[in-house]
Specification:
elongated, disordered C terminus, disordered N terminus, Outer membrane efflux proteins (OEP), four-stranded antiparallel β-sheet, alpha+beta, two-stranded parallel ribbon
């Protein structure tokens, strides 16, 4: 049984999320976060990401391979023209041509060959290639899904880092003010050296944390550029903050039976299983008799060296009466002794099918586990966010009280600054909880397949059709 999501905390990123069984997933699922910069960024990335371009090209190549194999259903027809010039020894010269020993020979013919698909070997080979093309199609869908999910997570990560950097800078500013106050008190003999040293250590710890956050933000921007097919020094205008993202409150829930139809990785494994099954038929057909029919129809012209120029004379006599010829033949081949090669090829195909079947089952199990883990994470995020939201509100209430006391002269400025630091630390924890909830919500859409069956954002959607036009 899959877990359910209970009521969550209120506030930014903390609305109660509800699971809706059977809810369809929009093809552009990221629009549920209601961020225009994010929508524009993903639209740009879908057009310029090199990985998706490579997957598109691989899909086209796979279908071209299908068309190549389908050509074997039809006879092969070729047209040939063979002019030649030859000389024979004088004693062997034909008396019919007045003893001439120099000849021009031209032959024109049409060749037809056809291999009968008696046992369905070619049909099963086409079936295998179509399944492989389907597999490549779903790998393309997986590439799109991975790209969009990575972009959403990168945007969420950037928003969270910006909020953490801002809060950390505020903490550092407050602690610098506290340190200056303690140093003044130290001069007056009202603060111990140990208090000043402890404050210096605390300040430096927070200063040390800031470069790491800034480095992560820079790397996140580099990741966004790379996902859009750009170099790190190429500017991306979109910038993200958590307040600009809305948490989807209705979440889809698919039963395992529907999940196997939605997940691109499961559909890929299914197509690979189908391809492996067809290869067994190919291996069996290769062990049975093979019939090939051939035919040729043509004409030959022979001239001596006298008279008209050779080429004109050959052409003029090429289609004269009596110059035509034809052949018709059949070739039936039954393998008898091959050292067991064909038998072992069939066994290898059967073993490959068994391997593909096991991989399919493993992929299905992993897919269901992925969804279950994501739902557990969303539930845990809701509980964590509720607790951190309470801590943030408590810290805000404490800061409000201390500031009123400071205005009345009941507490020192240091107490007020410490309350501000506590509040900013609680705010950082809240930001991290919000970001986790956003990310795990995006992970659920990814785990359920991302709604690729409803997608309309790709211009060249024709390449993603299961059966392209013929």
């Amino acid at each position: 049984a899959l877990p359910t999501v209970t009521a969550a905390a209120t506030g930014q990123g903390g609305g109660a999320q509800h699971l809706v069984e059977g809810m369809d997933i929009p093809g552009q699922w990221w629009t549920l976060f209601h961020s225009e910069p994010l929508n524009a960024l993903i639209e740009d990335a879908l057009k310029h990401n090199p990985d998706t371009e490579a997957a598109q090209a691989a899909l086209r190549a796979a279908w071209e391979g299908v068309y190549v194999q389908r050509a074997a259903y039809m006879p092969s027809v070729s047209l040939g023209y063979n002019p030649s010039r030859q000389r024979v020894a004088k004693p062997l010269a034909s008396p019919i041509n007045s003893g001439k020993n120099l000849y021009s020979v031209a032959t024109a013919q049409v060749n037809v060959s056809y291999t009968a698909d008696l046992w369905g070997g070619n049909r099963r080979q086409v079936e295998s290639l179509v399944a492989q093309a389907d597999s490549q199609r779903f790998q393309l869908e997986a590439a799109y899904l991975t790209l969009t999910a990575n972009l959403v997570n990168a945007a969420i990560g950037e928003a969270a880092l910006r909020a953490q950097i801002d809060a950390t800078q505020r903490i550092i500013a407050s602690q610098e003010t506290i340190l200056r106050s303690l140093q003044r008190q130290q001069v007056l003999g009202q603060a111990a050296d140990a208090d000043v040293a402890a404050q210096v250590a605390l300040l430096e710890q927070n200063r040390a944390a800031l470069p790491g956050l800034e480095q992560q933000l820079a790397q996140q921007r580099d990741a966004l550029a790379a996902l859009c097919g750009r170099l790190p020094d190429e500017r991306i205008d979109a910038q993200f903050e958590l307040k600009d993202l809305q948490l989807p409150l209705e979440l889809p829930l698919s039963l395992p039976a529907a999940l196997v139809e939605q997940r691109p990785d499961v559909r890929t494994a299914d197509a690979q299983l189908h391809a492996a099954s067809a290869q067994i038929g190919v291996a069996i057909a290769n062990r049975l008799p093979n019939l090939q029919i051939t035919a040729a129809l043509g004409s030959s012209g022979v001239t001596s060296s006298m008279g008209e120029p050779g080429n004109l004379q050959q052409t003029s006599k090429l289609f004269q009466g009596g110059s035509a010829f034809w052949t018709l033949g059949a070739n039936l081949v039954q393998p008898l002794l091959d050292g067991g090669a064909l038998k072992h090829k069939q066994r290898a195909a059967e073993a490959t099918f068994e391997m593909s079947a096991a991989q399919y089952r493993s992929t299905v199990v992993s897919a269901v586990q992925d969804v279950a883990d994501t739902l557990h994470a969303i539930q845990g995020d809701a509980a964590t966010l509720a607790a951190t939201a309470k801590a943030e509100r408590a810290a805000a209430r404490s800061l409000e009280i201390v500031q009123r006391q400071l205005a009345l002269g009941d507490v020192s400025e240091i107490v007020s600054l410490n309350a501000q630091v506590t509040y900013q630390q609680a705010l950082i924890a809240l930001v991290q909880a919000q970001a986790s909830r956003y990310s795990d919500t995006a992970a659920l859409f990814q785990a359920l397949g991302g709604g690729w069956w409803n997608r309309s954002d790709i211009e060249d959607k024709a390449i993603a059709q299961k059966t392209p036009s013929k």
